[in-house]
Design a protein that fits this description.
By secondary structure, the chain is mostly helical. The protein has 2 domains: 5-91, Rna Polymerase Sigma Factor, Chain: A (Orthogonal Bundle); 96-186, Arc Repressor Mutant, subunit A. Helices cover 75% and strands 0% of the residues. The chain contains 10 helices and no strands. α2 (16-37) packs across α3. The chain starts with a helix and ends with a helix.
Length: 187
């Protein structure tokens, strides 16, 4: 699919649905192979590819679309950039279960007086009720992300993952804002 920036811009602005269908047919198989080769799965590829199409469309609308080779190569480049950036962000995050494995929790931890748990509960509560429900469903009820997505009305598992991450970030920001260490939150 070798078209100029002007051609793709005109096509996107005149008949966006058809342009997206053509781009999907021409580019998605390569994008899916790339994401898989870089450690993702089919759902990851769909999410990243849709994000790439949105970026392409926004640039076309703003008149900032600058394709040096082909539209296919341009989109694959966006997909690669988005996926590598996403994986880099995800690599720096620890799940609660990974964190628990790294931190030794005393056996009598759950038998301590209420104030420490209240302090932790306060930080969880600052993230909001929906965040608390999402985190409880994932970490305590051990629901798969697909079920969480359906239960909370997200369009897909990726959206649920992103929302869970945002909830955790809200909590981390509150702890940072208070300049507290882990020990001060749980003790």
């Amino acid at each position: 699919m070798d078209v100029t920036a002007k051609d793709i811009t005109q096509q996107l602005l005149s008949d966006r649905a058809t342009a997206f269908e053509q781009l999907y047919a021409a580019c998605f198989p390569r994008a899916a192979q790339l994401v898989k080769a870089l450690g993702g799965d089919y759902d990851d590829a769909k999410d990243v590819f849709q994000d790439a199409l949105i970026i392409l469309y926004e640039k076309a609308v703003e008149g900032r679309l600058d394709i040096k080779s082909s539209a296919s190569a341009y989109i694959i480049g966006i997909v690669k950039h988005l996926w590598v950036r996403q994986r880099g962000r995800d690599a720096n995050l620890l799940s609660f279960s990974e964190l628990e494995q790294q931190i030794e929790i005393p056996h009598d931890f759950y038998q301590e007086p209420e104030p420490p748990r209240l302090r932790l509960f306060h930080f969880l509560a600052t993230a909001g009720r929906k965040c608390m429900d999402i985190l409880q469903a994932f970490y305590y009820q051990h629901l798969p992300l697909q079920e969480i997505a359906e239960e909370f009305g997200f369009s897909n598992t990726r959206s649920a993952t992103v929302q869970k991450h945002k909830c955790l970030e809200k909590i981390r920001e509150q702890v940072k804002e208070k300049s507290l260490r882990y020990e001060e939150v749980v003790e």
